Amino acid sequence: MFLNDSTFHKTMTSPLKKEFFPHQEIRAGQDELIKDTEEAFSNEKILLAHAPTGLGKTASALSVALQFALEKKKTIFFLTNRHTQHQIAVDTLKMINKQTSHEISCADLIGKRWMCTQEVAGLFGNEFNEYCKAVVEKGECEFYNKVRSKKELTVEAKKLIKELKQKGPLHNEELISICKDEKKCSYEIAFALAKGAQVIIGDYYYLFNPFVQSTIFNKLELEMEDVILVLDEGHNLPNRVTEMLSSNLTTYMIKNAIQEAKKFHYNGLIIWLQELNSIINKLAEFEGNDFAKEKLVLKEQFSDKVNKTVDYDQLINELELAADEIRKKQRKSFLGGISHFLEEWNNPEEGFTRIIAEKESKYGPQIILSYSCLDPSIITKPVFERIHAGLIMSGTLKPTFMYKDVLGIERGIEKEYQSPFPPENKLNLIVPETSTKYNLRGEAMFRRIAEKCSDFSSLIPGNVAFFFPSYALRDQVSYFISTEKKKFLEKSEMSKEDKEEFLNSFREEKDKGGVLLGVTGANFAEGIDLPGDLLKGVVVVGLPLARPSLKNRQIIRFYEDKYGKGWDYGYIYPAMSKCIQSAGRCIRSGTDKGAVIFLDERFSWQNYYTCLPREGLIVSKDYDKLLKEFFMEG
To answer: Comparing C-alpha atoms, which of 628, 25, 21, 38 is closest to residue 391?
Structure first.
């Protein structure tokens, strides 16, 4: 049901003012999300909303948050890990800005590297930050110098900022383009716009990276207690935080660091680096014939051995001093990467695991010493305790209680919303005829899976996407798939341009029909839109259960000890979340019609079945009849 403008106030259960809602109509279920969001903000709670595609999450969240922020003098942080979602948020604010009497101020921030106008190809993370710091301190960045002089804004920068504020909300690409023409640092201009802005759009790092958070809040003179958080695609937050808190040291890094030390004549470091290489090679002596060459390592097993060669802290300092000088000449330094790891290795034990492993890489076999975070709540819990209120939303925030636990949210409200799309437009089917279980894999099973995929390809008109648990399994099955449609095989490493070209070619096959053979959790299983007749079916082939690695066993053990739900939180739910994300590529609007098929007998087992969206879900082997009837009706 859709509501027209005249019935807005009468039908809304929330007192949201019409001027803050950017559309003429409210979608079915959207009024419920608006009401729940307002109640959560009013009661200083965190709403965890499992809200499917099409509910209008961004418009609902920003309309309530803006009204609340203006009334209570709070600052909205709209955080997302997808650049495309920045555009949607900015466009929503532009629409609100046109119809409200209030002046809406917004800053759209992305990583400093991505806003930089200098030539910084190949520099990431800490490397870029150190390079940027060095050129600014030496006064060698003309873009920065035109914005700040002795850390104060220049007269011309103030003039530009005033002009930009009059334009209303701007997308980061618009701002970068303007600043490029003006030869000014777009990152510094964006931060100047952020000071006093009602809405700050950015990456998760802006709140959940302690260093970035501290820098931003000091610059903007903000207090955490004044933040209203809207967290988009919230199912990604736990992994993003644990990855951010993890660090690796590899024999490849040490090899490159030795070459770097030779090139720049830091001969005193070479002996220490060679000894470091020797230490991790000795640690990587694996007993037995276990195919998995990995084992747990104690902090002291590594640090004590380093201390026998050189004082641990002295080594960190010497590496960092050399790295600072090297970055001035070539921007990137492997010595700096090793220094960073050594610092991280000395951090706390609780919620972390230390593993040494031998793995194959594109450079050949290498030893990896890792300090890996298992517990995202180390970072997220203090944030959720301090912010004024928040909304975490995603189409796959299920089960909500798991995210509440693993993120350490104590004042959370959990809510699941139904899809607003007509249920008759979607065939939701489990076909329990095959399995990708490890002990059942072999050519006979691969041929059987391929036979089913070939059937689906012929029964579903137009474009069909198949998502497999891994590239290896995809390749083993796709060899046997027989179809008249053109095959599109996703590659593991694809640039942004590669992905766009790949998708455009796939879109062009919509009339004849194409077959996308991808991987669950990879390039095309999340964050792409193929609405209308661009995608008529999605087949999730098998369960993308994590490989039984030592790290995954440690995650399961950690969640079992902390919540008594190790297998659920560490194994089953993350895999099912990936399946639901892949399935979500099919129906993107109220007029789309398509089939979603889960191909694996385990999808019908209770512990997996309960994780799937239940609207119209059918378990049947009679897929031929069901698919023919469904697409004939259209």
So the answer is: 38
Closest C-alpha to 59, from 81, 40, 78? 78
Q: How many helices (H) and strands (E) does the chain have?
A: 28, 20
Question: Is the preceding peptide bond at 169 cis, omega within 30 degrees of 0?
Answer: no
Exposure of 211 by Cβ count < 10 A (0-12 exposed, 13-18 middle, 19+ buried)? Answer: exposed
**pLDDT (0 to 100) of residue 4:** 43
pLDDT-based confidence at residue 633 (cuts at 50, 70, 90): low
3-class DSSP state of 588: coil
- Round to whole Å and give the CA distance between 347 and 491: 37
Q: What angle do CA 431, 432, 438 make, to 5 degrees?
A: 120
Terminal Cα distance for the chain, rounded: 21
Tokens at 352, concatenated: 């972390």
Residue 285 has pLDDT above 60, yes or no: yes
Give the whole-angstrom CA distance, residue 632 versus residue 350. 58
Q: What residue ranges in 469-579 does DSSP mark as E strands?
A: 486-489, 514-519, 537-541
Neighbouring residues of 166: CB distance < 8 A, sequence distance ≥ 6: none
**Please, which residues have CB within 8 angstroms of residue 1's CB and are 6 or more apart in sequence?**
28
Closest listed residue to residue 460, CA positions, set 580, 634, 595, 318? 595
3-class SS string, 278-311: HHHHHHCCCCCCCCCCEEECCHHHHHHHHHHHCC
The answer to whether 46 touches 391, Cβ cutoff 8 Å, is yes
Distance (Å, whole) CA 346 – CA 279: 17
Helix axis angle, 155-166 to 186-194, nearest 10°: 60
Q: Find the helix or strand (DSSP H, E) in which 227 lies.
A: strand 227-231
What confidence tens digit (pLDDT) does each residue in 435-474 have? Answer: 999 899 999 999 999 999 999 999 999 999 999 999 999 9
